[in-house]
Amino acid sequence: MENQKNTISQQQNLVLATISPYRLGIFKNLWIHFISEWSNVDENTPDRPAEPETLTKYLAKLKTEAVAQNHRTWIVIGFDTVGYFDGKILEKPKTREMAYVRLKSLSGKSFTYTTGIYALNLDTQQTITRTAQTEIYMRTYTDQEINFYLDNCNEAYKTHAHGFNPENYYSMSFIQKVVWDPNGTIGIPLWEIMSVLTEVWYVL
């Protein structure tokens, strides 16, 4: 069994159904060989669920199954993350004005990131679905700060208007505290990922 574990851990038989540089960067910290592929899934289907946990599990499953079509063996894992505030999904803002309204509404308040994880072992057909939540508390900031950020963020607001960008320390300053896993804010909570991997794959 020990030889089998070592052989598996040295092979590139894990596929992440994402090309997000943030997710891939965090995943590299696990010291596990993997490859990544884009799922090309339309996340804005009209019949998609409205509840964040159901939605993220649904989209993670679609992404995993899309990438799994390219393989006959291996483990495939898909992810999806959404922000949720005031009873609504925080969609990516399409304009600077929408980003301003978003940041203005979040000032001094909290919102939730929910990440859905779907893992598929193509050798055994075993599947695992999980969700993880991270609560983000925003400090109270001024209109001038919002405008300063949006004027200088090089359109990062299209993805990060809810105030978190690991490569932009000014946007990080909007956040007062993070409750639970900080890596959950970019959609890859490591504690949950390792729990999933130990169930579908002998990692160590």
Topology:
Layout: H1 2-9, E1 14-16, H2 21-27, E2 35-36, H3 52-68, E3 75-85, E4 88-90, H4 96-106, E5 110-121, E6 126-138, H5 143-152, H6 157-160, H7 169-172, E7 175-179, H8 190-200
Parallel strand pairs: 1-2, 1-3
Antiparallel strand pairs: 3-4, 3-5, 5-6, 6-7
Helix pairs in contact: 4-5
Q: What is the fold named in CATH at topology level?
A: Maf protein
Low-confidence stretches: 1-10
Largest sheet: 7 strands, mixed
Summed over residues and divided by their number, the pLDDT gives a mean of: 85
Structural account:
This protein has 204 residues and is an alpha/beta fold. The chain is 35% helix and 24% strand. Strands 1, 2, 3, 4, 5, 6 and 7 form a seven-stranded mixed sheet that branches. Strand 3 and strand 4 form a beta hairpin. It is elongated, with a radius of gyration of 18 Å.
What characteristics describe this protein?
204 residues; Maf protein; 7-stranded mixed sheet; 8 helices; disordered N terminus; elongated; alpha/beta
How is this structure best summarized?
The protein has 204 residues and is of the alpha/beta class. It has eight helices and seven strands; from the N terminus they run H-E-H-E-H-E-E-H-E-E-H-H-H-E-H.
